[in-house]
């Protein structure tokens, strides 16, 4: 602090010296020679007075400055303290800003992760919802099929309960198994009939291999006509039941082989055999006629004497 004060005083003295030098430089050297000693002394006195005045003024200014220096130093100290406080506050603010930025970035990263997780959960839920909707549709379709099958089975059970000679064996999702009886008085086994449902609202009929195929109109049809088809199958089997009953009795006396798919009966006699075609509807509406066979052929003139010979008439005639 003392050094600064001395520097200020030296600066003031240098300013006074510069003033004197400028004054001397401005004075004309010729005018000094012409000037009288009295004038010169007077001017010197004036200069001295002026110097003293300047010196006095300088000292006053120095005193004023010295009086102001403590105040200035105090204000400077206050400013320095304020500066330090501001720098500390700025440092804290910057640190808080950095922390806030880091916290904001961390929060943003956390929210982004939460958003991604929630988005995955939403996508998973949507996928599960689609799967559940598909399962519900499948279950509804299955329920509709089950209700349809139950209604159909109930209707068929009610229908079959009113049909004589028809008994229900089993009911499945896509099939119905029935036994069709010829008559309670006969020993002929019932005909096992399988009805298979199709997706087109129709059914297909399958019967035992030992029986000839029923007519095409009885092999398939619409489920709305199933009752009529069962009745026609019953009538069809009753006619064939009498044929089977007759064949069962004839097997006890003759060597015969029944080929149901061809509706052909092969009669063996020694080393010869004859083939007889049994027409559909026998014995009510169809008849029996011979078929040519090798090595022995049946003549067109070969015929029992009866007008409409039965199968029994033919076998008795061929074994004469």
Q: What is the strand and helix layout of this fold?
A:
Layout: H1 2-26, H2 29-34, H3 37-161, E1 166-171, E2 175-180, E3 191-197, E4 202-206, E5 220-222, H4 226-251, E6 255-259, E7 264-269, E8 272-278, E9 288-291, H5 311-318
Antiparallel strand pairs: 1-2, 2-3, 3-4, 4-5, 6-7, 7-8, 8-9
How would you describe what is shown here?
This protein is α+β, with helices and mostly antiparallel strands and 320 residues long. Among the domains are: 162-252, Copper Amine Oxidase, Chain A, domain 1, CATH 3.30.457; 254-320. It has helices at residues 2-26, 29-34, 37-161, 226-251, 311-318, and strands spanning 166-171, 175-180, 191-197, 202-206, 220-222, 255-259, 264-269, 272-278, 288-291. The strands form 2 sheets. Strands 1-2-3-4-5 form a 5-stranded antiparallel sheet, covered by helices on one side. It has a 4-stranded antiparallel sheet with strand order 6-7-8-9, with helices on one face. Strand 1 and strand 2 form a beta hairpin. The longest helix is centred in the N-terminal third of the chain and has 125 residues, at 37-161. The mean pLDDT is 79.
Keywords:
single chain, 4-stranded antiparallel beta sheet, alpha+beta, Copper Amine Oxidase, Chain A, domain 1, 320 residues, 5 helices, 59% helix
What string gives the helices and strands in order? HHHEEEEEHEEEEH
Radius of gyration: 69 Å
Task: Briefly note the structural class of the backbone.
Answer: alpha+beta
- Shape-level CATH architecture of the domain at 162-252: 2-Layer Sandwich
> Uncertain segments of ≥5 residues (pLDDT<50)?
none
End-to-end separation in angstroms reads 166 Å
Helix proportion: 55-70%
Oligomer: single chain
Number of distinct helices: 5
Q: Which range does the strand content fall in?
A: 15-25%
Q: How confident is the prediction overall: mean pLDDT?
A: 79
